[in-house]
Amino acid sequence: MSTTYQVFALKYATADRVRQSNFLHPVDGDPAAPMALDFFVWLVVGHDATVLVDTGFSAISALARNRQYLLTPMEAVRRLGYPPESIGDVVISHLHYDHAGNIDQFPEANIWVQDREVRYATGDCMCDPKQNHFFSTDDIAILIRRLYRGNVRLVDGFHALRDGIELHRVGGHTDGLQVVRVRTANGWVVLASDALHYYENLARRNPFPAIYSLEDMLTGYERILALADSEQHIVPGHDPEVCIRYPAAAVGEGGEGFAFRVA
User: Number of folded domains in the chain?
Assistant: First the structure.
């Protein structure tokens, strides 16, 4: 029988934005209307594996960028019942500061990242302030130290991490952005991360404006649709709607409001 996994979205921060700032092209309605951007990490749990997808932003980045935690990503994972030492694999969708901080909090885990993403984040594209703005040099330095230690696993496009957990490069937002496809009891779910920030980016084919390759981003939308069992099986990277569409997970006293059971 095929292995299935549970998937949780863990909300650890939020930021106030206006609607037009979340779309490349003009939007319907009031462009100045408030439209929050939530920050998540995702936990994939099965009998044979506990996999964390992304690690959120670090305390240093929170201070540098004036971000406020609702709770730290590490505390969110612990409250769900999984201390850092229980996590064997950490998948980094891409190396932007809000997805690749805190890697040092998982010293025993293997770190899975696309080879193209590492090359992008350490290559000549980082001479462009419009691109390097989204990265933390502290985070990249930690990753490189882990690479030298031998527990960073570089992915070339596609990799089957487990039976039922797949990594797929789609690019677009960054050159090496990867999505995670997970087989659940409800079907194949795609954790899209920043391949699409909001459901509406996909529905209207109107991308979030932080883009390395528009062609890859739009092609990535079709790839995600092909990988997921339905549009309802796609989880975007920053949409508050995630906290409405999926039920809150029961995680004990004081835990309500941050963990949502995707499948």
Answer: 1
